[in-house]
Amino acid sequence: MSRIAFGFTLLAAVTAAAQTPPVSGMRVNRLVIRNAMVVSGNGTPASGPYDIVIENHRIAQMLPLDPVSLRNNANRPVGDAEIDATGKYVLPGIINAHAHLQDERGGIPQPYEYELKLWLSCGITTVREVGADDTRKVLAMRERSRLGEVAAPRIYVYARLTSPPAPSSAAEARQRVRDLKAMGVDGIKIIDVDREVLEGAEAEAHKVNLRIAHHVGVQDANAWDDIRLGTTSIEHWYGIPDAAFLDGVQHFPSSYNYKNEVDRFRYAGRIWREADSAILSKVLDGMVAAHVAWVPTLDIYEASRDLQRAQTQPWFKDYLHPALEEYFRPNPANHGSYFIGWTSTDEAFWKENYRIWMAALREFERKGGLIGIGDDAGFIYQMYGFGTIREMELQQEAGFSTIKVIQHATQNNARILGVDAGLGRVKRGYLADLVVVNGNPLENLKVLYPTGVDQIVGGAVVHGGGIEWTIKDGIPYHVPELIKDVKAIVANARTGRR
After folding, report:
1. Per-residue pLDDT at 33 exceeds 70
2. Which of 53, 146, 208, 211 pairs with 398 at a CA distance of 20 to 30 A?
3. 3-92+428-477, which class in CATH?
4. Residues ≥6 apart with Cβ < 8 Å to 256
5. How far apart are CA 48 and CA 374, in angstroms?
6. Which CATH class is domain 94-417?
7. Among 417, 157, 404, which residue's Cα sits nearest to residue 293?
């Protein structure tokens, strides 16, 4: 019998002292998670069982349990509240490194509460918000989250450099960065700028100590500029294959219009096949040497390779807000709603695109590159939280082990944020951002979905899985209660539209 199986068997036979379960949304001075199998977040195998002691908002103790200590409950730590994690796994809180906090979609109101509770329901305890329309509103929500006034992940605010009026020179870009720094943002999101503006913004951002997320787009700049200028992370994939074209440009048809999103996404599906593999390898080497991370957001383009799957995801039935549902419909007025005349040929090109893209990701990590997890949800049939778990599944499809995928979503993302000294690990002294999972995510990442999974146990179909508790900053949130709240928000919104 394995050590893990022995531990669980013994735990099942041991009756722990009477426990007081936590109240969802209420921090206690001392919270104990008993009998947990732990995935630390640093890429090492699971181990346990442990008793994890949380005092206020930090992990105070990690106590490994052996048969003697399990039998002698009197010597084990006692908390003001306790969670029995027997048969469950504990991971670091998931970090979403490419998130959008949106209070409307296409002009239709959508409450922040909907997104915040979806994130927590999917084990997301930290988000890097990259480019809200109203930075001040997101900064206010960041403060409310910090104070524990609202059920929400920790928020890092990366303000959009190009919010109107967009800077059009290096000098204007420098001033915009200074203004954003004065507002109190944590970083900047750069999108759709030419090389001069990029150079000015990056130089000033380094000067005032702001990190940079760059959605390169089809511009005169590409990954070579990110390498030269010291970008923190490249978002999606734009700019990486572009830097590996033999003649410096993708072979667009003469009728191509970048502002036409059907054109834009159709031919984006043919970009990786045009990259020269030898040059691409050098680009990846350059990114590694310059410490440019990569947040690929594989999930957000998945509809391009399989539109039917994207449109019929099972959680849409109960959890898709009508504002988001309407925004997803093909409509040239909405960003990412470009599926007008989408063809089997488009899907075939995108399937090839994914194969080459995923191979590049594997090579990047093999060379020592830093890969993160982000979902870009709120667009293209991806829901908040659910998109993050799907991104993890797609990175497994790309060839990464589940242990590495979890590392990408926790420790790696903390490194991208520059906070890995105290976040992204299950470790003594770290912030108490944890998830308690019903099931083994190393075997099946689908157990992270709050909707759970069906399994055959003893010849019968049993519904299980799902995250039981999401703990952010020492505050435990009971996921069944959170997802019930989300379902009610959606039901009420649908009733209001009739």
Report:
1. yes
2. 211
3. mainly beta
4. 263, 267
5. 29
6. alpha beta
7. 417
